[in-house]
Amino acid sequence: VDIISLDGMECAGHPGEEDIGNFVLQAKGALALSKPYVCSGGVGTGSQIAAALALGADGVNCGTRFCATKECNWPESFKSRMVEASETDTVLMLRRLRNTCRVFRNDVAEEVEAIESE
After folding, report:
1. What is the H or E stretch that residue 47 is in?
2. Neighbouring residues of 71: CB distance < 8 A, sequence distance ≥ 6
3. Are strands 101-104 and 90-93 parallel, antiparallel or unpaired?
4. In sequence order, what are the residues at sequence separation of 6 or more whose Cβ sits closer than 8 angstroms to the Cβ of residue 24?
5. pTM, two decimal places
6. Separation of alpha carbons 63 and 12, rounded Å
7. Closest Cα to residue 63, out of 88, 46, 39?
8. What is the CA radius of gyration of the chain?
9. Measured between alpha carbons, how far is 26 from 52 in angstroms, rounded to an integer?
10. What mean pLDDT, rounded, does the chain reach?
11. C-alpha–C-alpha distance, residues 112 and 41, integer Å
12. Which of 27, 26, 31, 33 is CA-nearest to residue 2?
């Protein structure tokens, strides 16, 4: 292993199963790891990069942030929705299967939530 990606629960696609946020996870990584690591999840601004580095990360992974750029070939409608979204416009689903993923809240996501709550 050359480098480790520590994904906090802020991670977009698959945030893990333990609900550990990056403030806790990255600080723990600084104490426990001997390999370099990058902070993944919820990093999209300069101040968030600075926070990750201050917590001990050797770098960051800014995945979703770049999906809204003009260079990304995703549809403009999706990019606009990402940019306009608030921090409460997503939902975690498939938790019961221990394959948690973060998706936009929509009719399908709400139907999955209802099935999972049964």
Report:
1. helix 46-54
2. none
3. antiparallel
4. 8
5. 0.83
6. 8
7. 39
8. 16
9. 7
10. 93
11. 24
12. 33
CA angle in degrees (0–180, nearest 5) for 44-47-51: 100
**Residue 101 per-residue DSSP state:** E
Q: Name the burial class of residue 42, with classes exposed (0-12), middle (13-18) and buried (19+) by CB atoms within 10 angstroms of its CB.
A: buried
Q: Is 106 exposed, middle or buried (0-12, 13-18, 19+ CB in 10 A)?
A: exposed
Token pair 């390999």: residue: 35
- How far is C-alpha 22 from the chain's CA centre? 10
Cβ contact 57:29 at 8 Å: yes
Report d(CA 49, CA 110) in Å as an integer.
Answer: 33
Pair of tokens at residue 73: 């070939």
- Element containing residue 40 per DSSP (H, E): strand 37-40
pLDDT in tens, 71-118: 999 999 999 999 999 989 999 999 888 899 999 999 999 999 999 888
Could you give the CA distance from residue 118 to residue 96 in angstroms, rounded to a whole number? 11
Distance CA 4, CA 80 (A): 31
